[in-house]
Amino acid sequence: MDYLAALDQAIGKLHEEGRYRTFIDIERRKGVYPQAVWTRADGTEAEITVWCGNDYLGMGQHPAVLEAMHEALDATGAGSGGTRNISGTTIHHRRLEAELADLHRKDAALVFSSAYTANDATLSTLPKLFPGLIIYSDALNHASMIEGIRRNGGAKRIFRHNDLAHLRELLEADDPAAPKLIAFESIYSMDGDFAPIEAICDLADEFNALTYLDEVHAVGMYGPRGGGVAERDGLSDRIDIINGTLGKAFGVFGGYITASAKMVDAIRSYAPGFIFTTSLPPAVAAGAAASIAFLKTEAGQELRDKQQLHARMLKMRLRALGMPITDHGSHIVPVHVGHPVHCKALSDMLLADYGIYVQPINFPTVPRGTERLRFTPSPVHDPKQIDRLVRAMDALWSQCALNRSSAVA
Length: 409
Prior knowledge:
Layout: H1 3-16, E1 26-28, E2 35-39, E3 45-50, H2 63-76, H3 91-103, E4 108-112, H4 115-129, E5 134-138, H5 143-151, E6 155-159, H6 164-173, E7 180-185, E8 187-188, E9 193-194, H7 197-206, E10 209-214, H8 229-232, E11 241-245, E12 255-259, H9 261-270, H10 272-275, H11 282-295, H12 298-320, E13 333-336, H13 340-354, E14 356-357, E15 360-361, E16 372-375, H14 383-399
Parallel strand pairs: 3-14, 5-6, 5-7, 7-10, 10-11
Antiparallel strand pairs: 1-2, 2-3, 4-12, 8-9, 11-12, 13-16, 15-16
Helix pairs in contact: 2-11, 3-11, 4-5, 12-14, 13-14
């Protein structure tokens, strides 16, 4: 086999379809984010505004987080030095897990190197704990959930996105005595829509199923203390396992699950993705714990309120221009383009001509024909930056002769 030719063919296909992804070299500037510096291919630099970051609340530059990280770094050094079972558990990891358990009102929490790993490791381990487990998974669940469910070797059922009737139909078709788990997300990040959490919990109760909720795009962002949509809706106690990230609204790095003490103990003891992975650096754990603690306070609520305000402002301005946006009331602002080449071209022009950085979202992240630009306004974006973005989008939409409509279903 000509291996190089095969690689050329695979990469060439992405270019032909307009789906080839390039890295944009940026340097975030502490204290002025979302402003950053973009290093062009020719080595020159330009000031840009980041509009597609997942540091939703700007906590990656918050003084409380940085101070905690500096203190831990000076006290402990760089890395943890091992897995959690072998010298890699410190007081900083313990404090972080205590903060997480308290955030979600659960008995215990378990920290992983990423939310992807947490989903993959947990969902692939559960059939070992519950032989014969059937997992019911929303069709739009994240790749990490899909991978974990695929690797577990057990039975799976895919229900249509947020379709309670289809979920009920699948549950009714299976053996009532079989162990069951319903896996879903609170906010689906590409459209920004919410899951019907309470109704899914009702079905879980009726069919004696466990519930597994991915709150990755909601933790820090919703609820009186940032515990996510389940906390906002008073449903945390009805969720058996909650997955979250430390790398988005909390502004640091890592992932986790929270659950009962027995559930966490079992996952800790059986999941290879946890057992054989070096633990987070203590400084990272300390920074994440400080971020969570801060966002539980009234000051954290002020950041959430400001973020929601800026999201509403951006949606209102774009809608007034007839931009095809999807608005489900969350903090995510998708603007639909519908063609991979056009989507990439708009992204390139926004960056090169206006200093606005937003990555195109193409297949396989979203279905073909639904390509989009996905904006994530934050409390650290100011009204002038919002105005510049709206004016740039208006100009480019006209320049490229794209359709305008008030909304996308």
